[in-house]
Amino acid sequence: MKAPEFNRTLRQLVALPILLLILMAGFLVWQIAAATAAQTALDHSDRVTAQLQELENLFVDQETGLRGFQLTGDPVMLDPWKAAAGPIQIHFGNLRAMLAGDPGQIKAVDDLEVRYNAWLGYANAVLKQDPKVVAAAGMNQRGKAMMDGIRAATSKMLQQEHNTRAQRYRYARWLLGREMISLLVSAVVVGIFLALFTRHHVHAISANYQRRIAEITERSNDLYESQQWFKTTLESIGDAVIACNHRGAVTFMNEVSEKLTGWPLAEAQGKPLAKVFHIINEQTREAAENPVEKVRRLKQVVGLANHTVLVARGGHEYVIDDSAAPIMSGGGRMIGVVLVFRDVTEERRVQRALVASEKLAVAGRLAASIAHEIHNPLDSVANLHFLLDQESDPEKRVEYLRLAQQELGRTMQISRTMLSLYREPKAPIQIDLRELIEGVLLLLDRRIQHLGIRLERKISGELAVEGFPAELRQVFTNLIVNAIEAAGQRGRVRITMQRADPGELNGAGAMIDIADSGPGIPPEVAKKLFQPFFTTKGAEGTGLGLWVSMGIVQKHGGSINIAEDLNRELSGACIRVFLPARTMARQAGQPAA
Amino acid sequence: MSATTILCIDDEALGLEIRKAVLERAGYHVLTAVDGATGLAVFRRHTIDGVVLDYYMPEMDGGAVAEAMRRERPEVPILLLSAYINLPAEVVDLVDVTLLKGEGPLELLEKLHAMLQASRSRGGEGQLRGGVA
Questions:
Q1: Considering only CB atoms, which chain B residues are within 8 Å of A445?
Q2: How many interchain CB pairs under 8 A, A with B?
Q3: Which residues are CB-neighbours of A401 under 8 A, at least 6 positions away?
Q4: Which domains does chain B have, with CATH numbers?
Q5: Which residues of chain A lie closer than 8 angstroms to B105, CB-CB?
């Protein structure tokens, strides 16, 4: 039952009984009006009877007066006679007026008046004569007879009126009875109707209410269960989870986060996140940006900056990996922030070890090449020394010395290049990428020649970038060795170096494409190419080269990815490295992973 | 008696010329080649008493050259020069002597001489056995 329906039912429940009662009252008023009319008719009959009885008395007074005068001759005796004459006329008038609606009784009044007038004529005649004469002439008998007639007529009228009254009385009684029955019947009918009607509606409302209660109970049970489910799930997660409300106060922590922060939920609840989740930069030791603020600002999922360290309540420090996401309400309003983080201290340690081992692997790969590079000129120098020792021709001696000098120069250049591979400045320095890559190529020259690789260089624009030369040399050694090995015997490798203008996503810098004529990178390999321990070289590779390279390039604020060869001339892979002219890297060491 | 002819193969042209001068100074007749294919061609055209072969060369390395030579004239002794310490075992087995680059000219001449001596005595035995048969 919806709210409008409920309201309508309520209105019905109030309005209908009122309407019914008004109808009943109207009916009663009508009944009472009828009863009142019957009562008035009864009163009328009583008044008519009273008039008639008074008239009769007046007649008696006149006759009595007449008799008295006849007997005594005393005119005083005639006083009642005179007194009654006026009222008799008035009573006749009254009766006529009262009985106007009853032709039978009017006729009777007329008859009575005729009789009275006749008697009055007789009485006047009696008064004018001597009483003895009257008695002798038998006039008294006549007078008596007339008076009897009058009495009879009056009596008849009274009787008549009595009958009318009785009839009216019966009618009034009947009306009263009807009234009572109607009242009773209508009260019962309305009562039953209202009872049934109300019962029906109350039943409907009650059923609805019960249903609603059941629904709400069920829903709240479901809600409780799902809440428990989510809570248990969050509790069971291996990562640390902290939820905050929109003001950044802690509302939930799971066990892992309690352990890492050193704050039990009971104590942390309601506290600002920055107090419970105290994070700093691993290197600068400065406070890191509060992730809640960042989420509030960006309204999207954010990851923490690299090298974030969580300082636990007891002072213990954990290197963490973390992300924060806004909790949105159905209406798209941000109602909180959820933070998920993980202790990666151990992982970082392993990563550092891996990066170091890869550095060694690169050195190992280069060692053979370097040995060759150094041994060849050394061998020549030794031979020249032998020749010099035995030669007496000054011209030849000069020539041998010149050759020895040349070969020594080559040895020193290689040795310098080798040294610079692992000597690193503390801060990023200006690097001419062209020179750096040429140095790498020099070290790899023997290998390139051995495989008969045709190497092309395309260089355009200034290629100055800021960075750490040894790390970048490691990157390009890796990439060029990969290209050479992919190209194989008599393959081709093209290194394109060009200036990159500031674009939408990056600032100015240098773009290096290294393309080879090898078999290319299948899509399933491309996806994993920059993951650690992924190698296509079997036991030969560590699977760390590209992963470490990517770390170094990213640390420099650059990018490394698989690109399309611009000329589509070389069938194989093309790796593109972008390095910004101004780097964000501040310290040499392990790349950001 | 004509001088002993040595074929010297190395892709490093300057080093090759200097080595040639050292060997000539020691009294050998020296032929040179800057890659394996050229070296094999020279090997086929001339009578060679010994080969001084560089291992690490583009396209055809010392191992491949030595194998080809052994197929054609297995009696010709081969000295393999290398900057590598860990040469493949089958290559080491294939050649008579290996020498690490940078050990110096005296070592080279000594080992070459010894190798040629051994080869000559082997060749004599072979001829003797042939004569008996």
A1: none
A2: 69
A3: A384, A388
A4: 5-132 (3.40.50.2300)
A5: 382-383, 385-387
For residue B49, which of B18, B92, B3, B81 has the smallest C-alpha distance? B3
CATH number at residue A126: 1.20.120.1730
Are residue A197 and residue A296 in the same domain, yes or no? no
pLDDT, tens digit only, all 593 positions of chain A: 677 888 888 888 888 889 988 998 898 898 889 888 888 988 988 999 998 899 889 988 888 888 888 888 888 888 888 888 889 999 989 988 988 888 888 888 898 889 999 888 888 888 887 767 766 677 778 888 888 888 888 888 889 889 988 998 998 889 888 888 888 998 898 889 888 988 888 888 889 889 999 999 999 999 999 988 888 888 888 889 999 988 889 998 988 999 999 999 899 999 998 889 988 888 788 888 888 888 888 888 887 666 788 999 888 888 888 888 888 888 888 888 898 988 888 888 887 777 777 777 776 666 666 777 788 888 889 899 988 988 888 998 998 899 899 888 888 877 777 766 666 677 888 888 888 888 888 888 878 887 888 888 888 877 888 888 888 888 898 899 889 988 888 889 999 888 887 766 667 888 899 998 888 888 777 777 777 667 776 656 666 778 788 888 888 888 888 876 555 677 788 888 988 887 766 554 444 43
ipTM value > 0.95: no
DSSP strand E in A306-371: where? 308-311, 317-328, 334-343
Question: Is residue A356 located within the same domain as residue A300?
Answer: no
Indicate whether A196 and A244 sit together in one domain.
no
Number of domains comprising chain A: 3
**Partner residue facing B18 (CB), from A372, A374, A380:** A380
Q: What is the DSSP string of A252-281?
A: EE-HHHHHHH---HHHHTTSBHHHHSEEEE
- In three-state secondary structure terms, A471 is helix
The residue of chain A nearest to residue B60, with distances taken between CA atoms, is A450
Pairing of strands A454-460, A429-432: unpaired
